[in-house]
From TrEMBL:
<keyword id="KW-0479">Metal-binding</keyword>
<keyword id="KW-0227">DNA damage</keyword>
<dbReference type="InterPro" id="IPR029052">
    <property type="entry name" value="Metallo-depent_PP-like"/>
</dbReference>
<dbReference type="Pfam" id="PF00149">
    <property type="entry name" value="Metallophos"/>
</dbReference>
<feature type="domain" description="Calcineurin-like phosphoesterase">
    <location>
        <begin position="4"/>
        <end position="194"/>
    </location>
</feature>
<keyword id="KW-0378">Hydrolase</keyword>
<dbReference type="GO" id="GO:0004527">
    <property type="term" value="F:exonuclease activity"/>
</dbReference>
<keyword id="KW-0175">Coiled coil</keyword>
<keyword id="KW-0464">Manganese</keyword>
<keyword id="KW-0234">DNA repair</keyword>
<dbReference type="GO" id="GO:0006302">
    <property type="term" value="P:double-strand break repair"/>
</dbReference>
<dbReference type="InterPro" id="IPR004843">
    <property type="entry name" value="Calcineurin-like_PHP"/>
</dbReference>
<protein>
    <submittedName>
        <fullName>DNA repair exonuclease SbcCD nuclease subunit</fullName>
    </submittedName>
</protein>
<keyword id="KW-0540">Nuclease</keyword>
<keyword id="KW-0255">Endonuclease</keyword>
<dbReference type="GO" id="GO:0004519">
    <property type="term" value="F:endonuclease activity"/>
</dbReference>
<dbReference type="InterPro" id="IPR041796">
    <property type="entry name" value="Mre11_N"/>
</dbReference>
Amino acid sequence: MSVKFLQISDTHLGYNQYGLKERGEDFFDVFKEAIDIAIDEKVDFILHSGDFFHTSRPSNEVLLNAIDQLKRLKEANIPIFAISGNHDRGNQVRDISPLKILENFGLNLVENGSLYYEGIVISGLKYLSKVAIREHKGIKDFLEKILEKSPDKNALHLLMLHAEFEPFFPNSLNLNKEVPEGFDYIGIGHYHIPQKPFLMGNTTVLYAGSTEFTAYNEKEENYPKGIHLINYQDKEFDYKFLELKRKRPFIRINVEDNLEKLEKDLKEKLEESYEISDKKPVVILKGNVKNISYKDIYTLIEAKNFNEKVLHFNISLTNIFETESLVESLSDNKEEPIEYKLKEFLDDENLYNHVIDVIATLKTFDTTDEVKKYLKENPNLLDI
Ligand SMILES: [Mn+2]
């Protein structure tokens, strides 16, 4: 038997990152590119391992655009099988997964069970809450039941999962212990950096990754975004990673106490970016500085018209001087600064650090108008 399919995951349709419609369009651009590839390659089907939508309440426009892409697949006779991820499963009490709507337009939802398609058993387990996982001491019993009910024990068994596994998520499930023998292939969503497939016993495992940046950090920046073309022939999985070209370029620059250097770095990186993509990049500026402020950077951006060449600036500065003065005031404890007061009622250390960062950022502006402008350009400042 031979079969050819596309493994995709974490498309997060409808995510207007940074509050920008353009970012929402980017997520659709790469999704369309994936569908183009499926059609060009004449694959037998697509597996989607969760987080199809960014939220469980996508807008009508997002639903309509998703349905348009499903129509293209239907016309090309390519079925798509999917599970819900943590982003789009709905909270079960208040509402159902929006993928249930797409079932009426040809999407095959495999939430906790199997479908039998042309001699292949395609199984899926949607994202489960931490409570459900604790109650069942993992996901193994779900997977064992799926296998028990398999319509054809000798068929090729493909599985989709969307869950947290070691080592990508600390203190999470151990894939080796959770998966019973009997699945030939597992496509896993949730972890956003695409990995190469590996063998676990007789099972081929692939962490698919996301198709666009939902978060941008040092860990993700050096990895491409893409999808996976899988060819199963003579009992072996042959594999090809296909990079998606329509993704938005991201640039990261380390900010030092030198505005001239920043200008030079920015110019260089923008030129490089325009060589690989006609999309204006998102620019991440980060640094530990003493003598320059957000305001200085915004003044530079405006004076040199960088706004015209960049989709969005995401700036985050840590001010060495501010941190030092905070430590001093904490130790002598003469008057209680707001940071000290906050510690009394913010138990969570991450939350505390986040709030302190926000305050430090806002302190560098002189007027409310400046703060408003900054918040408009960096709406994710308050994301927790
Ligand atoms: Mn995701």
